[in-house]
């Protein structure tokens, strides 16, 4: 069992152990030895403090940057969505290689593989969830409520996410989610079965994950629920890293997830992890470009301070978020927990203090 206090010197050793468990060419794993030092450097801590006003009392949900995005940034976002939409036209196709990568080339005539999500009527999804009954409710996020349902046509159990028109996300995030998950396929990404865009209704239909999210197994556990053992924690971390590797290294252009956190890592049978919730995902920089300029979106506690302060999004923004998730997996603590003692509210800052003390003692 991982105890809540097993951080100090064990964290760095765990990081090294984790890197040996996963065989990836992934940029985040090739730099894992530097990950925690970057996370807890004084510059990173001060940057996070400045970015969020130092109060640390925002909700843990998705947030937009208070500053209005420029017309150029909105135009860029619209162009990116249009570019993705072009790939989903009936006459468009993608080259899906054996390793699961997408390179945007025409599929050879001897083996086309068309990628498309099913369309559902609102009546079908209402029937699947017994008219969205409260006892079918699985949870609620930035997009809206998620229900467990059973499709009458196939008898398949699914998770159905319904857009909350008064929520933080809307048509843009719905479209991005449909486009991204229709194009991107990997064992460690949740599978989008279909969607409904009837009238003003916006619903997404996913494969059902019976074990819920990683957050359900790390935080606020009831007394009768067993904590995850160490091997299971490492298995989940490795699977999440593989999903992120696919988005960064296999997809072309690369995809920046932008909202990696414990609640967006869903667990299938055997604690097999899958990344979910791609509404905030962005196409990454290509060619000689180093970043993508965009509105700051994400979740407090997981957002890279450089991105929060500048709006310049890079693949490394996801790496920072992955590092925070890894710290949560190792320590069992939340990224932000205001119920803890002073100085322990922010997980990254708290681990930073422990590491600096450990280094000081070592050199004393």
Automatic annotation (TrEMBL):
Enzyme nomenclature, EC number: 2.7.11.1
Residues that hold ATP according to the record: 161
GO function terms (MF aspect): ATP binding; protein serine/threonine kinase activity
Domain Protein kinase: 132-364
Enzyme class: transferase
Membrane topology: Lipid-anchor
A GO cellular component annotation in the UniProt record: plasma membrane
Compartments reported by the entry: Cell membrane
CDD domains according to UniProt: STKc_IRAK (cd14066)
InterPro entries, alphabetized: Kinase-like_dom_sf, Prot_kinase_dom, Protein_kinase_ATP_BS, Ser-Thr/Tyr_kinase_cat_dom
Keywords, ordered alphabetically: ATP-binding, Cell membrane, Kinase, Lipoprotein, Membrane, Nucleotide-binding, Phosphoprotein, Serine/threonine-protein kinase, Transferase
Catalytic activities: L-seryl-[protein] + ATP = O-phospho-L-seryl-[protein] + ADP + H(+); L-threonyl-[protein] + ATP = O-phospho-L-threonyl-[protein] + ADP + H(+)
Pfam families reported for this sequence: PK_Tyr_Ser-Thr
Record-linked PROSITE patterns: PROTEIN_KINASE_ATP, PROTEIN_KINASE_DOM
Family: Belongs to the protein kinase superfamily. Ser/Thr protein kinase family.
Protein's recorded name: non-specific serine/threonine protein kinase
Source organism of this protein record: Colocasia esculenta (Wild taro)
Taxonomic classification: Eukaryota, Viridiplantae, Streptophyta, Embryophyta, Tracheophyta
């Amino acid at each position: 069992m991982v105890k809540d206090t097993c951080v100090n010197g064990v964290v760095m050793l765990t990081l090294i152990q984790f890197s040996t468990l996963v065989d990836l060419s992934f940029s985040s794993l090739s730099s894992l030895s530097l990950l925690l030092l970057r996370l807890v450097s004084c510059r990173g801590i001060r940057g996070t403090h400045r970015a969020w006003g130092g109060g640390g009392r925002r909700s843990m949900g998705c947030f937009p940057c208070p500053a209005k995005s420029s017309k150029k940034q909105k135009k860029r976002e619209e162009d990116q969505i249009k570019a993705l939409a072009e790939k989903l036209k009936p006459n468009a196709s993608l080259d899906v290689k054996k390793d699961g990568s997408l390179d945007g080339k025409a599929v050879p005539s001897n083996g086309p593989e068309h990628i498309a999500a099913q369309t559902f009527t609102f009546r079908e999804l209402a029937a699947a969830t017994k008219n969205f009954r409260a006892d079918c409710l699985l949870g609620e996020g930035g997009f809206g409520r998620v229900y467990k349902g059973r499709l009458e046509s196939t008898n398949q159990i699914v998770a159905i996410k319904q857009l909350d028109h008064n929520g933080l996300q809307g048509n843009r995030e719905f479209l991005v989610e449909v486009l991204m998950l229709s194009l991107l396929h990997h064992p460690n990404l949740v599978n989008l079965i279909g969607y409904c865009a009837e009238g003003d209704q916006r619903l997404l239909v996913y494969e059902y994950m019976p074990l819920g999210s990683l957050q359900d197994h790390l935080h606020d556990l009831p007394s009768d629920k067993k904590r995850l053992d160490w091997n299971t924690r490492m298995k989940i971390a490795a699977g999440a890293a593989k999903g992120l590797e696919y988005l960064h290294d296999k997809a072309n252009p690369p995809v920046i997830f932008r909202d990696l956190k414990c609640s967006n890592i869903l667990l299938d049978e055997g604690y097999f992890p899958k990344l979910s919730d791609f509404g905030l995902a962005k196409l990454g920089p290509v060619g000689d470009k180093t970043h993508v300029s965009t509105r700051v979106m994400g979740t407090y506690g997981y957002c890279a301070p450089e991105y929060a302060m500048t709006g310049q999004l890079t693949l490394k923004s996801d790496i920072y978020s992955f590092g925070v998730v890894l710290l949560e997996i190792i320590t069992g603590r939340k990224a932000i927990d205001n119920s803890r003692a002073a100085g322990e509210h922010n997980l990254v800052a708290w681990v930073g203090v422990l590491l600096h003390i450990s280094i000081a003692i070592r050199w004393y």
